[in-house]
Amino acid sequence: MGTVNSTTTPMLQNRYALEETIGSGGMAVVYRARDRMLERTVAIKLLRPKYSGNQAFQDQFRREARAAANLSHPNIVTIYDIGYDAGRLFIVMEYIEGQNLKDLIRQKGLFEVHEALPLMIQAAKGVGYAHRAGVIHCDVKPHNMLVTKDGHLKVTDFGIARAIASIHPDETTDEIWGSPQYFSPEQASGQPPMPYSDVYSLGVVFYEMLTGQLPYSGKTPADLARQHRDPNIRPIPPRHLNREIPEELEKILLLLLSKEPRQRYRNADILARILEGLDTPIAQNRVVSTSARSASVSSHTRQQPVGKENAPQQTKGSPSAVLHPTPSSTLLTPDIIVLAIIALVLGVGLLPFYSYILNVLGWVK
């Protein structure tokens, strides 16, 4: 993304050599670096100079390191170390070679269902593990999801994470944390976040992946917050923007985006299990649809007419075809029918009738 400039400390604690800028945010800059002691590539999140002397930001930065360091899961970026050098706080993390999900959405426009579902399952598993460990992410968004070339997703940036045990149910605040495009109605209202707040944010990300746009858009953060809060403002139904979304999946999406927290899934773990239940049928239907298309092309090439009885009964966009694939029909040939009759005759001992059947069919010369 960019080389390290001359004003940046090129080496931290005489161990971590900064090599390239790979990301930046309001509080910190992220670098690809080399751990000279362990001879491995790492990512380093370095607090910006203007925040380094602010005790509140330092405390928040340390909270992120502690919250994420206790989380060990395949879908969460691993924290290795936290340090302080030349007046700068930094976090040493696992380096992920890939792109953040927001960049992928910008490139693709929107994801096909079979592409989006496995990624969202992984995101929900990572966030769900944090929920089981008593941690709320509070800033779930595609910018904080890293995707490798082989489709492995890892959640990162627990910068404003909260421990569930530290949250009082009656607390309110004038300071709103999170990203206005993705935060939940309760966060937009200054209420304490809970696991179902992360679930809402996952719903916003999923909606964006499948439709190519956010459920709400506004010119200012205040306008976005109002739209998230207002129970009379609803997102455009996803299938109006993408007919390939199955009806069952649309229902789940709208459930995730409920303004009322109790109408959502309690935590991301439950969401992951629900989505896993849809993943296999959708994948199976895609294989069947692909095979059917190939057979149709082959038949057309041979100029063989397709009778009405052979026409497909479900289109690719049909939800029932996607989530409830119809099993193949049993083929009944004349020989099978005759053998079934013979078995029935032998079963009841009607041997004369058996001889008559064989003579009629010409099986006895």
From TrEMBL:
The keyword Magnesium does not apply. Gene3D superfamilies: Phosphorylase Kinase, domain 1, Transferase(Phosphotransferase) domain 1. One of its GO terms (molecular function) is protein serine/threonine kinase activity. It comes from the Bacteria. The chain crosses the membrane at residues 336-357. SUPFAM superfamilies: Protein kinase-like (PK-like). InterPro entries: Kinase-like_dom_sf, Prot_kinase_dom, Protein_kinase_ATP_BS, Ser/Thr_kinase_AS. Keywords: ATP-binding, Kinase, Membrane, Nucleotide-binding, Serine/threonine-protein kinase, Transferase, Transmembrane, Transmembrane helix. Its EC number is 2.7.11.1. Residues 289-326 are annotated as: Disordered. Residues 289-302 have a biased composition (Low complexity). This is non-specific serine/threonine protein kinase. It comes from Anaerolinea thermophila (strain DSM 14523 / JCM 11388 / NBRC 100420 / UNI-1).
